[in-house]
Write a structure and sequence with these properties.
Layout: H1 2-36, E1 40-49, E2 55-66, E3 70-72, H2 74-84, H3 87-107, E4 115-118, H4 121-124, H5 129-139, E5 147-152, H6 153-156, H7 161-172, E6 176-182, H8 189-194, E7 199-202, H9 204-209, H10 214-229, E8 233-236, H11 242-250, E9 255-256, H12 267-276
Parallel strand pairs: 2-4, 4-5, 5-6, 6-7, 7-8
Antiparallel strand pairs: 1-2, 1-9, 2-3
């Protein structure tokens, strides 16, 4: 019986694997069409000052609505884009569309907030990547200082000096750089010191656990102190409760993002928010 079960399991597993491989190819093809056919969109999640709730910046999050499957999470399709090389096109689109939207806001007399754009480390490894980021900024006459690129800590780990140089190029062009999901990797302090950063972004996992786990709370406290001593900005992601807000404030964190304040907003809702806040 054990043998039969084993064989079945084996068979099932195999089938599963080929389904997975096939699904991935189908998704990859659909994503290719979406990127080239302008079927992606952007969401905007405000960043707020913890004390007052004032919106001081916004993070751009890409959205893909599959014609049949509906919305697919970027946590699913970004890795597909990275493996298939589509990430370059996707990143270009996000950058150009963001610049276009900023220009529209400017023209509509709305406040132009600083924007954060997520960058895959694969994008940093492309030759001429800085030019691809700079071109739309120039084209729309925007200030590079308005932009912050968020790169995940785990993405940067085990990368070569070339990636650090790429980040330096971004800083030299006047852009800001944030280390996203900070605390989930194992960056050493000496590695951190080499990175030309503007901001540390505390990972949501620590924010979730911090109110009932002393270790998570210590980690948050330590990251805030670290940012201060390295003269970096610090922001907490994934704040969902008042308790978390209060605790972060007590620990000296001044900035946050999370559902407690705003979920990622459609372009329409984001414009509405900008219009209301004058
Ligand atoms: P991230 O940059 O760390 O973005 C934060 C994610 O957490 C977003 O998920 C956001 O919708 C979600 N989030 C924000 N506040 C809360 C909260 O209070 N509670 C909970 N449960 N979630 C919250 P999303 O939009 O699904 O994006 C997932 C990841 O995909 C991002 O993580 C980022 O790494 C990547 N990503 C998104 N857009 C882009 C893009 O344009 N380019 C690249 N390369 N990566 C992107
Ligand atoms: Mg991010
Ligand atoms: Mg993050
Ligand atoms: Mg994250």
């Amino acid at each position: 019986e054990a043998k039969a079960a084993g064989r079945n399991t084996f068979c099932f597993y195999n089938q599963d694997m080929s389904h997975q491989a096939r699904d991935r190819l189908v998704l990859e093809q659909a994503l290719r069409e979406a990127v080239l056919g302008n079927a992606l969109s952007l969401n905007f999640q405000p960043k707020v000052l913890l004390e007052t709730g004032e919106v001081f910046a916004v993070e751009v999050l890409v959205r893909w609505r599959h014609p049949v499957l509906g919305f697919i999470s970027p946590a699913v399709f970004i890795p597909i884009a990275e493996r298939s090389g589509l990430i370059a096109e996707l990143g270009n689109w996000v950058m150009q569309e963001t610049c276009r939207q900023l220009e529209m806001m400017k023209c509509s007399g709305l406040k132009v907030l600083p924007v954060a754009i997520n960058l895959s480390v694969y994008e940093l490894e492309r030759p001429g990547f800085a030019k691809h980021l700079m071109d739309p900024v120039k084209k729309f006459g925007l200030d590079p200082g308005l932009f912050e690129f968020e790169v995940t800590e785990t993405g940067l780990m085990s990368r070569e000096e070339a990636v650090i140089d790429a980040l330096k190029q971004l800083r030299e062009a006047g852009f800001n750089v944030a280390l996203d999901d900070f605390g989930t990797g194992y960056s050493s302090l000496s590695y951190l010191r080499k990175l030309p950063l503007s901001t540390l972004k505390i990972d949501r996992a620590f924010v979730i656990d911090m109110t009932n786990d002393k270790v998570a709370a210590s980690i948050v406290r330590t990251v805030i102190a670290l940012a201060e001593s390295l003269e970096l900005e610090v922001i907490a992601e994934g704040v969902e409760t008042l308790e978390q807000q209060t605790m972060l404030l007590n620990l000296g964190c001044k900035k946050a993002q999370g559902y407690l304040f705003y979920k990622p907003l459609s372009l329409e809702d984001f414009y509405q928010l900008l219009a209301e806040s004058g």
